[in-house]
Amino acid sequence: MTEYPARPDGSEIDEIGRGEAARTEVGRLAGEPRSGASALEVRAALADAVDLLPALAPADPTDRYTVRYLTVLWLEADKTPHTRRAYYADLAAWLTWCSRSGLDPLAARRADVDAFKATITVTGRDGLPRPAAPSTVARMLAGLSSWYRYLESNDAADRNPVTAVTRPRAAARSAPRSALDERAVAALLDHAEHRANRLGTEAARRDAALTGLLFYTGLRVSGITTATVRDLDQDAGHTILRYLAKGGHRDFLPLPPPALAPLHDYLETRARNRGVPRARLTGPLLATAPHAHDRSKPGGKPLTQRDVWQTLRRLAAQAGLTAANSISPHTARRTAGTVLLAHGVPVQKVQDLLGHADIRTTRDHYDAHRHKLDSSSVYTLAQILGDHRHRGPQE
C-alpha cells in the first residue's frame, strides 16, 4: 500500500480512508472557493482536493506530468463548479472501488469498468443500497472516460478502459417534471416582495431578489450563485447580467424590470449596511447577510446552492404553496420554460433562453403536460382519417 501523510493525531490515512475523505470533500470541493478567487487559488484548492483521492501515486513536485497533477488540470479545464463537483465525486467513487479491489486504475481494463458499473447499478456511487439511475451511470462513465482520455493525451495512460463499455440509454421521452402554475409563481413572488418590504432587512431583500432572478430569468442556480456585483452591466439600454453558463462559458441576458427592482433594493440596502456607495459595492451578487448577534459572521460570502434551496422552500411554505416540500431551484427553470411554451413562445426562443444544447430537452422536459396533450398529433390524425370514413350502419 502506498504511504501517505499521517493525520494530525499521528494515525495513518489508508487507501480506504482516503476514499471516504475524498467523497466527503465533494460537499465543499475547493473548485468553488470564495467569490473572485484567482486562477492560482482555484488550482491550489483543486490540488488539495485531488490529494485526497485514493489509488493514485503521490504527486511528484519535480514531474509536471504525474497523474495527480494532470487530474487537477483536467478538473480545472472548461468546467463549471457544478461539473467539477460531479466529476470529482465520480472519479472518487471509481478510485475508491479500485483501491478496495486492489486494482491499479492505470492498469484497468473494460472488464473492471463493467464490474464497477454493475456495482453502482446496485449500490449507487456512495456504496449505500441506493441504485444509481441509468442517467447517473451514463454520466459517471462519461466523466471517467473523459479523465482517461485526458491522461492518454498526455501519455500518462496506455488505454481508456471505458471506451467500449456499454452506457445506459436515457429514455427517449421522460415523463414531464413538475412546474408551478402562473398563480403559484405570482403568489410566491408577491410574498417574497411583501416580506422584504415589511421586514426591510438585508436578508429579506436578498431573498426577494433571489426569487425574482430565478423565476424571471430561468437561470440555473449556479449562474446566480457564481455571479458578482460587477457582472451587472448596461448594454443598448438594457441592464444585463453576465453569468457562468453550463460548460464553463460566459453568457449574458437582460433583466426585466420586475426582476431588477428587488435586486436594486437589495443592493442599495447591502451597500448602505456596508457604509459604501452602491457604485462601490463589490463581492457576490447575492451574499450571506451579517449575523444579527455574532460579529464573527459578517456575511458577504456567496450563497451556496443549498442556501438557495432552503430559502426557496421556506418562502414557498410561507406563501402557502402546496408544492412547497418539493420545490427546488430547478423548478424555476421548468416553470419558465413551461409558461413560455404554453403561451405560444417559439420553442427555439425558449431553448435560447434556457441554454439547452438540444432542442428536444426544451420540447420534452419543459413543455407543459397539458400543452403536450392538447397539441398531440393524434387528434390531427383522427380528424384526417375521420374525413374519409363512412359511419353508416354496418352490414
Give a short synopsis of this structure.
The chain has 395 residues and is mainly alpha-helical. The chain is 51% helix and 4% strand.
Task: Describe this protein's structure.
The chain is mainly alpha-helical and 395 residues long. It has 2 domains: 15-153, no CATH class; 182-334, Intergrase catalytic core (hpI Integrase, Chain A). 51% of the residues lie in helices and 4% in strands. The chain contains 16 helices and 3 strands. A 3-stranded antiparallel sheet has the order 1-2-3. A hairpin with a 5-residue loop joins strand 2 and strand 3. Helix 1 (15-25) runs antiparallel to helix 4 (81-100), helix 8 (202-217) packs across helix 12 (329-342) and helix 13 (347-354) packs across helix 14 (359-365). The longest helix has 20 residues, at 81-100. The termini are far apart. The relative contact order is 0.08. The model is unreliable at 1-17, 30-35 and 172-176 (pLDDT under 50).
